[in-house]
Structures are given as C-alpha cells and as structure tokens.
Amino acid sequence: MVRAYLSTFNELGIETWLAHDSLLGWWLSGQVLPGDRDVRMQVSEPGIFDLAAYYNMTTFSIRVPGQPKSVRRKYQLELSRFAKAREQSDPAGSADGRWIDTDTGLYIDMYAVRYNLTHPGGRGMMSCKDGGEFRDKDLFPLQKTSFEGVPAKIPHQTRELLVAEYGARALKAGGRNG
Predict the structure, then answer these.
(1) Burial of 90: CB neighbours in 10 Å, binned 0-12, 13-18, 19+
(2) What residues does the LicD/FKTN/FKRP nucleotidyltransferase domain cover (predicted)?
(3) What is the pLDDT of residue 88?
(4) Confidence (pTM)
(5) Of 90, 120, 168, 169, which has the highest C-beta tally within 10 A?
C-alpha cells in the first residue's frame, strides 16, 4: 500500500513525505514499523489543493509488482471536506485525506502542511491538523531516499524532528542513521 501511494503521488507530481511513525520506520529500517497500522504522510498545501481539484474520490488500479500483469489492487483517494481549509475546522482533528486499500480497508492518513501566518513563533512556522508544528527550514528542502523499496522524500532535518517527537532513545534502537 505504501509503495502504491508513493509511486502514484510521484507520478502525479504531488509533493509528499514521510511523517511521524512512518519517518521513524524509515530511520530504523527503511520500512513501515512492524505492526504499524497507522501510516501517516504529509503533503504540501499546493499538493492538497491539486488532489482536491483533480483526484478526490478517484480509484487507482495499481499493478502488484512481482505478480502477473492481471493482478492489481485498487486504492481510493478520499479527501476530507475540510482538506482545503487552513484552520482546524474538523473538531475531531481528522486527516486531510486518506489513501484507502479498497479490499482491506487499511489506509494511509495524509496531512497538509501549511504556513501558519498567526503562529507566535513568527515567520516560517508551519503546522498541520494533527497538531504538528515545524519551521520551514526543518522540512525543506526535502531529501530524496527510498522507503519500502520505492523513491520517497523525508524532511531536511529528519533526526531533529524525530528526536523532538520520540526522544533520542527511539533513534538508538538501531537503524540506518543511528
């Protein structure tokens, strides 16, 4: 599912990157954390606008690598009705969108990262509806890598963001960069 998401968004030209537990999984092994059912990605604000304008409720049929050409999986891109809103309009704090495996119901949550023009931290502060706050210089420029064997992107200051969210001990459990 993650490979299909990353490959499709790359083909569509939508800027997306690993976040939270997915980013920690990349740090530790280059893969989704074992048993993780809460995969989360971030998307640029222009990316969420493009998805809302052209791809909301689109079903993508993706060929399964290593299988006959006839073996495909279907994924639906579903955006929240609040996806384009800058403010936290949804009291439940829902994701801006989901990439849903139509056979299993498993999904990837997507959160748009936007400049927060009223943040007390001043210029360059960004936030998303899951409560994450970042300085633009910590996210950008995004760095190219691979995750689950396909091209992916990660924040510029990955280590610092992971330490702030999970603590330094989480990064010492092993990993690519620990």
Answers:
(1) middle
(2) 11-114, 130-167
(3) 61
(4) 0.91
(5) 90
